[in-house]
């Protein structure tokens, strides 16, 4: 018999089978209760509704219900309808699956890349979401513009110009569901344009390199000297991925001369710079360095995200594109996978000033943590030096030569998750290895920070 669904109250999938309709329906309902598909207390459709949906007589359904009530599978009370009885269904015995031994979770997590999630501004975000939903036009819930909602692109254009020195207008912004998907999309566009290599920094995230590789490009690490990255390297690559404001993970800023050299190279070769401004709002010793994109908006793709300023789980990022690149990006996907309500909420959050207030509060919190880390190291582990600029949500702790692996292992024994610098080194990098820890001081919640810092100090040489 064809499959049937009753649609009153609950969706009820039944396949009556057998020599008669009454018996077939009774057996199907009994089996659904016995196997647990219908949980105890579940209210069943009325006999009239179920009969109409199954195309059978109402008396047939009523008789099947009566039979199962008599057997104890169902209960029927006036005013509450027919429900599954409060009894444990007799399921076939199952052999328990062998339990896998899970590794113990660390007591403290100092991995970089995540902000303090406990400080997410829930109340302000909820207010913005309510305002956004109330003000959203009906057509906002449709498929919409592949660049993303105009409200968010307009709010981003104003904020990025004011806070990061980005030159753009809303029409050149494309919303993305995070940095990784944006990078993968750009890599596919570059491959379609005939590029086969992308120059990258010698230290970074292998997840990003893998995204580029899956798009058909080869990553070529840039050389490094005593002062930082040398952008004139990278072979014949006409595109380069950079963190000019705060290199991840080493923590330096791209030197002014190298910023100019990167732009000159892009102009000379007709290439592109992919600028990853992942934590540009967080500079503690002075005003943040402005975006590299301001030097040449026609040769720099600016990539930003709310992952560090708010939370990675929002999956909200953005690309500011040169006009020549915009059609290709939209052809390869654009912002189709980004939720409209999240976009409208972030637009409200930016326009109301709540984003600026949150960033200022977070900046103060992370600066205090970094200052506490530096002071504690000076007092209790003077052989360990903090390198890089005072910025971001992580710090690099330079260790005595040959000690990185043993310190990382000792940290694991102490229930502390913290990576060594070697984890972030490109496999083809020609720079000499350096012993260091990459400490994400932004990751712990406020109540866990002191314990995490104390655990770190116990394992340092």
Mean pLDDT: 91
Q: What is the CA–CA distance across the termini?
A: 74 Å
Provide the low-confidence segments as ranges: none
Number of strand segments? 18
Strand residue content: 5-15%
Rg over CA atoms, rounded to whole Å, is: 29 Å
Number of helices: 13
The global form is: globular
Q: Biggest sheet, open or closed, and with what strands and sense?
A: 5 strands, mixed
Mind explaining what this structure looks like?
With 461 residues, the protein is α/β, with parallel strands linked by helices. Helix content is 37%, strand content 14%. It is built from 13 helices and 18 strands. It has a five-stranded mixed β-sheet, with helices on both faces. Strand 15 (385-387) and strand 16 (395-398) form a beta hairpin. Helix 6 runs parallel beside helix 7. The protein is globular and about 90 Å long. The termini are far apart. 41% of the residues are buried. The mean pLDDT is 91.
């Amino acid at each position: 018999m064809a499959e049937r669904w009753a649609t009153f109250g609950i969706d009820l999938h039944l396949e009556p089978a057998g020599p008669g309709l009454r018996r077939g329906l009774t057996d199907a309902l009994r089996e659904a209760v016995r196997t647990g598909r219908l949980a105890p207390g579940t209210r069943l459709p009325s006999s009239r509704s179920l009969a109409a949906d199954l195309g059978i007589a109402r008396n047939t359904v009523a008789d099947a219900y009566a039979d199962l009530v008599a057997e104890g599978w169902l209960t029927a009370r006036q005013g509450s309808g027919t429900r599954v009885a409060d009894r444990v269904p007799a399921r076939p015995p199952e052999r328990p699956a062998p339990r896998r031994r899970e590794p113990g979770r660390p007591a403290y997590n100092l991995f970089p890349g995540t902000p303090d999630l406990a400080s997410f501004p829930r109340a302000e975000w909820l207010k913005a979401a309510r305002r956004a939903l109330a003000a959203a036009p009906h057509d906002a819930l449709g498929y919409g513009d592949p660049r993303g909602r105009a409200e968010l692109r307009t709010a981003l254009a104003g904020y990025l110009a004011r806070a990061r020195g980005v030159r753009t207008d809303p029409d050149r912004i494309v919303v993305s569901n995070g940095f990784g998907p944006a990078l993968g999309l750009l890599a596919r566009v570059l491959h379609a344009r005939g590029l086969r290599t992308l120059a990258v920094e010698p230290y970074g995230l292998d997840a990003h390199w893998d995204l580029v590789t899956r798009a058909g490009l080869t990553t070529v690490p840039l050389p490094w000297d005593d002062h930082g990255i040398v952008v004139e390297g990278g072979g014949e690559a006409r595109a380069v991925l950079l963190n000019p404001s705060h290199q991840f993970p080493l923590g330096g800023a791209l030197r002014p001369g190298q910023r100019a050299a990167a732009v000159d190279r892009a102009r000379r070769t007709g290439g592109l710079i992919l600028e990853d401004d992942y934590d540009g709002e967080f500079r503690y010793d002075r005003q943040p360095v402005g975006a590299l994109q301001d030097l040449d908006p026609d040769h720099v793709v600016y990539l930003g995200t709310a992952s560090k300023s708010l939370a990675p789980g929002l999956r909200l990022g953005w690309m500011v594109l040169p006009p020549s690149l915009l059609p290709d990006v939209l052809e390869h996907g654009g912002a189709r996978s980004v939720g409209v309500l999240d976009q409208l909420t972030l637009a409200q959050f930016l326009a109301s000033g709540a984003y600026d207030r949150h960033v200022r509060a977070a900046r103060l919190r992370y600066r205090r943590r970094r200052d506490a880390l530096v002071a504690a190291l000076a007092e209790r582990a003077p052989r360990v030096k903090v390198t890089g600029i005072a910025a971001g949500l992580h710090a690099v702790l330079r260790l005595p030569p040959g000690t990185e692996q043993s310190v990382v292992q000792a940290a694991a024994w102490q229930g502390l998750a913290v990576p060594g610098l070697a984890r972030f080194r490109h496999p083809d990098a020609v720079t000499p290895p350096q012993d260091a820890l990459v400490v994400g001081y932004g990751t712990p919640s406020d109540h866990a920070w002191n314990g995490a810092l104390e655990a770190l100090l116990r394992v340092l040489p």
